[in-house]
UniProtKB/TrEMBL annotation:
InterPro entries: Malonyl_CoA_deC, Malonyl_CoA_deC_C, Malonyl_CoA_deC_C_sf, SAM/pointed_sf. The lineage of its organism: Eukaryota, Metazoa, Chordata, Tunicata, Appendicularia. GO terms for molecular function: malonyl-CoA decarboxylase activity. GO terms for biological process: acetyl-CoA biosynthetic process; fatty acid biosynthetic process; malonyl-CoA catabolic process. This is Malonyl CoA decarboxylase-like protein. Gene3D superfamilies: Malonyl-CoA decarboxylase, catalytic domain, Transcription Factor, Ets-1. Transmembrane segments: none annotated. It comes from the Eukaryota. GO terms for cellular component: mitochondrial matrix; peroxisomal matrix. It holds the Pfam family MCD. Residues 104-360 form the Malonyl-CoA decarboxylase C-terminal domain.
Length: 442
């Protein structure tokens, strides 16, 4: 805190770097590193109290020091933990983002990596927690597994974000086979991104996932031992799917009516609802999470998930599934819905066993990403008017769980109508604009 005060006047100079020695910034790092939480909050308040230009110069000077970016990430983490909303936070986020953009390196984790990196990795996976040392070592197997991480060049031994990859024959549809099967795949042709986790709370809200996936893909494409691997895909959870079903079931006083409502895919699919004799079994499945009840709903659950991903929207008009938003924003395509893909307790609790493959076509992902042509990346929606639907055809619909040919035909007709409506609306808007016709005329 006293160091910030001693620097404050000089930080207001345009060329502060010429009058502030690196040792003074490093003294701040030392003070921060040994401080208790109360002292750290006082240091943050001191930084926030100086003029904005001065605080930004301080942040820039910090990035030039050994492990300086790590110090800034730690300060940002403390802000989150204390739930502080201060002007300093904006400068922190912008400075960290700019330095990560140019300073990240992708590295592969191996069985002989330093033990502290292995220990960080073993506790990092919040999607599919690593159950034991044996399961952790399996993820690092040379033959059919890969783990990649991003680190800043100032601190290459400290992973910031980690992705787990399984090398499989064909695009995998079951997480149990990836996590629990000890038999090694021979001749894999697919790389499956099945878990990605940030190791730094201070990076919350700073998207490094796209950078890691594209970097890991490039590493595997350049690996001479993986020349047959040409397919890249995720195997992703659907964390809010069961919660959405429960909400639908609770939205009406009539339990039977609610379940019927769930199974009506009106305006998207013209499908028959499940017979009344199965309603009680479905309620039991949702409540008990018993995988033995799944087979009866092998057709219905994919159709429900289709509705959830393509029709349900959040307040910002984006799809309600954050995982779907993440992959589609990264340029992936929703490729397949997988039934009975995760029958573990947490998989049943999240999504009644359903998982999704999002395919990364390396020759198209940059064009697929909405960021390529749109500024409203974070409100992009996978809906009936979305580009993802416009790329659907009969074969893709069948993979997505639409089994009956008549249902696929009806859905493709509906998509065509929506596309025509969208085009007509755009033409009408252009005509209004060009002719300056008052809209009240029509």
């Amino acid at each position: 805190m006293s160091i910030v005060k001693s620097l404050s006047e000089r930080l207001q100079l345009k060329h502060a770097e010429k009058v502030i020695a690196p040792a003074e910034i490093q003294a701040f790092q030392h003070e921060w590193g040994k401080a208790e939480i109360e002292t750290k909050l006082q240091i943050i308040e001191s930084l926030d109290s100086i003029p904005e230009d001065a605080s930004r110069r301080f942040l820039q000077l910090m990035t030039r020091q050994p492990n300086g970016v790590s110090t800034l990430i730690a300060i940002r983490s403390t802000l989150f933990k204390a739930k502080l909303s201060l002007p300093l936070a904006t400068g922190l986020t912008e400075t960290i983002t700019a330095n990560l953009d140019s300073g990240l390196q992708v590295q592969r984790m191996r069985k002989d990596s330093p033990r502290h990196i292995i220990d960080l990795f073993s506790s990092s996976d919040r999607v599919h927690p690593i159950a034991s040392e044996c399961r952790m070592i399996r993820r690092l197997e040379e033959v059919d597994r890969r783990v990649f991480y991003l680190a800043h060049f100032q601190n290459p031994a400290h992973p910031l974000i980690v992705v787990n990859v399984a090398l499989t024959q064909g695009v995998a549809s079951s997480i149990q086979k990836i996590l629990d099967d000890d038999e090694k795949e021979s001749g894999p042709d697919s790389a499956i991104f099945y878990s990605i986790s940030s190791l730094e709370p201070g990076l919350r809200g700073i998207d490094l996932g796209h950078r890691l996936i594209t970097s890991a893909t490039a590493e595997m494409q350049n690996d001479v031992s993986l020349t047959n691997v040409t397919q890249f895909s995720s195997l992703s959870p659907v964390p809010g799917f069961r919660r959405w079903i429960l909400k639908m079931m609770d939205s009406d006083q009539s339990a039977l009516g609610n379940v019927k409502k769930i199974f009506e895919i009106a305006n998207i699919l013209s499908v028959e609802t499940i017979g009344a004799e199965n309603y009680s079994d479905f309620r039991e499945l949702v409540a008990s999470l018993d995988p033995q009840l799944l087979p009866k709903f092998s057709n219905s659950l994919p159709k429900l998930l289709f509705k959830y991903l393509f029709a349900e929207k959040g307040p910002d008009n984006s799809t309600v599934c954050p995982v779907c938003n993440f992959h589609v924003r990264n340029g992936a395509e929703l490729w397949r819905l997988n039934f009975s893909a995760n029958t573990a307790q947490y998989g049943m609790s999240e999504s009644l066993s359903m998982m999704v493959n999002y395919r990364y076509y390396t020759d198209k992902m940059w064009q697929n990403s909405p960021a390529e042509n749109r500024k409203d990346v974070f409100t992009w929606t996978v809906d009936i008017n979305g580009r993802a639907l416009m790329r659907l055809d009969d074969e893709k619909l069948e993979r997505l769980g639409v089994d009956h040919p008549n249902h696929r035909y009806e859905l493709l007709n509906e998509i065509l109508k929506q596309v025509i409506f969208s085009l007509n609306s755009r033409v009408i808007n252009e005509l209004y604009s060009e002719a300056a016709i008052p809209r009240t005329v029509l």
